[in-house]
Amino acid sequence: MQRLIPVLNNDHVPLHLISVINTLLTAAKEISHRLHQGSLAGTLGSTLDENIQGETQKKLDVVSNQLIKNMLLETNLVHAVASEEEDDVVMGNPDAKYLVAYDPLDGSSNIDINGSVGTIFSILEKPDHCAEGKELFLQTGDEQIAAGYILYGPSSLLVMTTGQGVRVFTLDHTVGEFLLTVDKLNIPADTQEFAVNMSNQRHWTKPMQQYIQDLLSGELGPRKKNFNMRWNAAMVSDVHRVLSRGGIFTYPADCKHPEKPCKLRLLYEANPMSFLVEQAGGRASTGYERIMSLQPTEIHQRVSVIMGSRNEVDTCLDYFKSIP
Ligand code: AHG
Ligand code: MN
Ligand code: MN
Ligand code: MN
Q1: Residue 118 Cα, ligand 3 centroid: separation in angstroms?
Q2: Has the ipTM of the complex gone over 0.95?
Q3: CA 80 to CA 97: how far, in whole Å?
Q4: What domain range is 216 assigned to?
Q5: pLDDT one-digit tens code per residue, 93-114
Q6: Is the CB of 61 inside a 6 Å radius of any atom of ligand 1?
Q7: Planar angle of CA 320, 272, 251, nearest 5 degrees
Q8: 58: Cβ below 6 Å to ligand 1?
Q9: Where does substrate bind (predicted)?
Q10: Is the CB of 234 under 6 A from ligand 1?
Q11: Going by DSSP bridges, is the β-strand pair 166-172/146-152 parallel, antiparallel, or unpaired?
Q12: Are residues 36 and 174 in the same domain?
């Protein structure tokens, strides 16, 4: 089995970028260890603090965020980081060129029930034009030079892309190395599996309500398929299933909280996951626009997400085209 560094070297990934990715993995190994220690590590449960998202921070949200931020900034290779758990951008080496947006722990609500969680990262380069602070990160998803996640499940997996397809590496705990286990992931174009939080159904917009209603009726289009549903409440885990065996994952806009019509964040959830899904032959849309074409205006902005098997996503998008 090939180790990460020779594989990325072979892919002509610049050495400094390999070093940034390797630093993320060092932090990930520490996070993986604490997760697998469970309550023995003393880092389960919530803090008394709320993050800028309005969420009560889990202890591991904070610990993971600190680990990743400190390790990345220590490399001197990172110009700035943006994190779900940081109100603002944190500046690093002014002469460095890499920008890292990350969700230190995705699916936090699963931590205390021993469910799957993950770390999501998106790597950009400092823009050519003069930019400071959060403006550095206001780049479309197409500008990403690398993206991926570490899924802390029964095994710890790194799933990543540098724009040359999607590779999967499995953490070999005996030697502490991520070894290449899937050379190129491809999402099947069709599926009979959907992932959505059905409890929000009455709050969705009409197109999504009609699509899911038709999907559940078994009468969807000429294919008349019976669908199965999965919902892990952790985007990393739900999208990993879609990448592994196909499916359609959606967290659509809803009117449950009018001030926050969307749940998922563009910079460190939707964009990196869209990069992976498109590199694996899938589709990723807001319902009206391709996610990676969106021009961000805020580092924590939220977006409606529909992604996965391209033929099924296209069927769903037809509803957004035809229903006002
Ligand atoms: P995070 O734990 O980083 O805040 O993200 C949680 C997100 C995403 O992982 C998941 O798909 C979604 O929240 C689940 O939302 P529900 O709790 O509404 O199911
Ligand atoms: Mn959160
Ligand atoms: Mn998340
Ligand atoms: Mn998170």
Answers
A1: 8
A2: yes
A3: 9
A4: 193-322
A5: 999 999 999 999 999 999 999 9
A6: no
A7: 35
A8: no
A9: 106-109, 197, 263
A10: yes
A11: unpaired
A12: yes
According to the annotation, is 155 in a ligand binding site? no
Query: Is 278 a pocket residue for ligand 1 (Cβ < 6 Å)?
Result: no
Ligand 3 centroid–CA 264 distance in Å is 7
Q: Measured in whole angstroms, how far is the alpha carbon of residue 183 from the centre of its chain?
A: 20
Q: Is 106 annotated as a binding residue?
A: yes
56 and 170 assigned to the same domain: yes
Asked which of 1-5, 23-27, 39-43 is least confident by mean pLDDT, the reply is: 39-43
Show the 3-state SS of 140-195: CHHHCCEEEEEEECCCEEEEEECCCCEEEEEEECCCCEEEEEECCCCCCCCCCEEE
Count Cα atoms within 13 angstroms, Cβ side, for 62.
14
Q: Is the pTM here over 0.95, yes or no?
A: yes
Query: What does the H/E/C string look like for 222-251?
Result: CCCCCCEECCCCCHHHHHHHHHHHCCEEEE
- Whether residues 60 and 142 fall in one domain: yes
pLDDT digits (tens, 9 = 90+) for 111-159: 999 999 999 999 999 998 888 999 999 999 999 999 999 999 999 999 9
Of 184, 215, 232, the one marking the end of a domain is 184
Say what the pLDDT of residue 220 is. Answer: 67
Q: Which ligand is nearest to the CA of 117?
A: 1
**Amino acid identity, position 43:** T
Span 49-78, average pLDDT: 95
Measure the N-to-C terminal CA separation of the chain; round to a whole number of Å: 52
Q: Is 322 exposed, middle or buried (0-12, 13-18, 19+ CB in 10 A)?
A: exposed
The residue whose CA has the least distance to atom 11 of ligand 1 is 235
Task: Indicate whether 23 pLDDT > 90.
Answer: yes
